[in-house]
Amino acid sequence: MTKKLRLALLQMPIDAGRPESNKKKLEALLEEAVSAGEKPDAILFPEMWNTGYALTEIDKLADRNGEETLAYLSAFAQTHGVYLIGGSIAEGREDGVYNTMFAMDREGRAIGQYSKIHLFRLMDEEKYLKAGSEPGELVIEGERAGMMICYDIRFPELARTLALGGAKLLFVPAEWPNPRLHHWRTLLTARAIENQMYVVACNRMGISGETSFFGHSMVIDPWGEIIAEAGEEETILRCEIDLALVDEVRSRIPVFEDRRPSLYRLD
Ligand SMILES: NC(=O)CCC(=O)C(=O)O
Questions:
Q1: Top mutation candidate among 48, 114, 120, 213 for ligand 1, by most atoms within 8 Å of CB
Q2: Is the complex ipTM higher than 0.90?
Q3: What is the pLDDT of residue 266?
Q4: Where are the domains of the chain?
């Protein structure tokens, strides 16, 4: 039995410190994603798409409790009958700012929320952001999926935790810069192969200050094949996946049955 999902990944530039201009760009791409070509079932955006890494002013720029973002995503999802895996935003809470992903179902109901667990020191995240404290999961068309954000993909334990919880696909919004394209592609592919799951990863493109982002959003199947990959330009990357392939791969190479957890060191 097939379980097909049409995906659209919004690979966009992000103007650091300008949430209004980023929202306009996102709105235009979302409209294009649902009006041109075959309508997607689910749409994914990049990491921190509202503010970018304007970390020194992040307290002021962050969306308070994600209220504005949630209202907008919910209305769009309901109007167009589409799942939104809303990238991540700078979300302001009482105790600080989190790097948070929100997911909506086709009726505009919030079905998942995840705040980045591993903060990336090379971009000073740990100085300005609070770390989340639990893995992120959601159910899409009756199937479990996991959420991880950018640097999180360097931690195979997190992807494995989500796979053991039943996830058949992993959504990964990112702001992953040059010169680490090799790491990006290799780590995403490894997470797909070792967990026998789809990995759907949406990176930003363009330049912010002295940092350039290479795009290369991609969708990888549970065999580790890259079935769609963008270049460096702004684009909507479209792809159809069949979740039935996850069960097929897992039954051909029974990695989950062959695990020896009592022998693994986890701390
Ligand atoms: N925004 C991020 O988490 C970037 C992670 C990254 O670039 C890496 O190499 O890891």
A1: 120
A2: yes
A3: 81
A4: 4-260
